């Protein structure tokens, strides 16, 4: 200041409003959490719907299995297992695609960019797989229980 307008420096203070953004960020995080939980709930409902319609098409097969000696537990494991295998394959495909995209971001950055190549968030991928498996199990539970209640005598019709 002395160099430009001929004054003197009395004191310097910091005027920062960074702390006020903490409340805004916490509200945004809460909103994203609620939105993601609602989307997972809708996903579970969709999987229940698909599972019940698939059950209608597989009823004859499941009844024959029951008639030749499969227990109710085996039927539940069969229906839940198919949901679980599908969920794991979709998770593996999604992780592979996201891994490729993260590495492509690094290739698209200019050489003199101050931003480094991003690392792949493995912990987030593990949480996503766990949530996907839980969603698949919850979505397949009602169709599996309904399939287990089928009576083998219906297969003779």
Could you tell me the mean pLDDT? 85
Distance between the termini: 97 Å
Q: What oligomerization state is this entry in?
A: single chain
Helices and strands, in N-to-C order?
HHH
The radius of gyration computed from the alpha-carbon positions, rounded to a whole number of angstroms, is: 28 Å
Q: What does the overall shape look like?
A: elongated
Strand content: under 5%
Number of helices: 3
Helix content: over 70%
Q: What about the largest sheet? A: none
Number-wise, the strands total: 0
Secondary-structure-based class equals mainly alpha
> Unreliable stretches, pLDDT < 50, 5 or more residues?
none
Describe this structure in words.
With 157 residues, the protein is mainly alpha-helical. The protein is 71% helix and 0% strand. It contains three helices and no strands. Helix 1 (20-67) crosses helix 2 and helix 1 (20-67) runs parallel beside helix 3 (122-148).
